[in-house]
Amino acid sequence: MKAVEFVKCSVGYTSPVVEGLNLRIDVGEILNLYGDNGVGKTTILKALVGAVSVRGEIKVFNRNILMLKPIERVRYVSVMFAEILRGDITVRRYLSLSLTSVWGEWARYYNINALLDRPLKSLSSGQNRKVQLVRILSSAAPVLALDEPFSHLDEETTRKLKSSLLELHRKGRTIIVTSHRPLGIGRPFKIPTETTV
Fold it and tell me: How wide is the angle at C-alpha 158 spanned by C-alphas 139 and 21, nearest 5°?
């Protein structure tokens, strides 16, 4: 069964970044979407949440999510982008906005309990990334998409993240991970530098 399917998709802003994308991702599969800077990896993830222009279809569990409001899509897909979080909101408050209560378990696993009462703007890039990981791994959405999640991570956290993704994979979650080079986990899919995929 297909979890996510891009059908003849052109995605972008004022003009397409990626054109003619046909891509199928099975339920419970890890897909490693990789390629050079600027080829459209992040843009493809933004298409899942309605943040860019899309022509074609994006189906999640056979439902065209382009027909849903962006706020409704979070029941199907949760996306973590590579941007650094800023603001006066505390880590605890940010994580408590998660739709599930399991974030506490992930917070312990990623050793961020000491950060819970600090504002997001006070975190280093590595701490910030750990907080984002805890948030997305706590999501109840059946499809998780992570934009370059291994950047800014130390060796121990890199190992933990690989283990976390494989564990969620074993539990049947569908995962999309972007990177510049193949990660060695999941099915690699290279976005070519040409505009048509």
Answer: 60
Q: What are the distances in angstroms from CA 175 to CA 54, 88, 156, 170, 197?
A: 21, 30, 21, 11, 20
Between helix 155-170 and helix 125-137 the angle, nearest 10°, is 10
| Domain locations in the chain as residue ranges | 2-190
Structure token pair of residue 193:
């530098």
Burial-class residue 87 by CB neighbours within 10 Å (0-12, 13-18, 19+). exposed
Q: In terms of pTM, does the model score above 0.85?
A: yes
Class of domain 2-190 (CATH, top level): alpha beta
Amino acid at site 144: L
Digit-coded pLDDT (tens) for 44-75: 999 999 899 999 999 999 999 999 987 889 88
Asked if 166 and 160 count as a contact pair (C-beta separation under 8 A), the reply is no
Distance from the Cα of residue 82 to its chain's centroid = 9
